[in-house]
Specification:
With 75 residues, the protein is an all-alpha fold. It has two helices and no strands. It has a domain of 50 residues.
Length: 75
């Protein structure tokens, strides 16, 4: 089994209240792939340009997941 994330977030314990469970669910939902459609079709890019696009997309996802308003388990 592979554990992803920080062990100190408290996600290994059952939520005490329904509100905590709902907040935890929202955090986990944010980790799902975005519903924003990627450009379909063929793009003529160099390897470096394609990697730069992937890095920018992953950085945007990381910023969304690590936003200060996102509650990552009980504090």
């Amino acid at each position: 089994m592979r554990i992803v994330g920080n062990k100190n977030t408290g996600l290994d314990q059952a939520p005490a209240t329904p509100e905590e469970a709902w907040l935890r669910g929202r955090v986990l939902d944010a980790m799902l792939p975005s519903r924003v459609a990627l450009a379909r079709g063929v793009s003529r890019l160099t390897h470096a340009q394609a990697n730069a696009q992937d890095d920018a997309r992953m950085l945007e996802i990381a910023r969304t997941l690590n936003a200060p308003d996102a509650a990552h388990g009980p504090s």
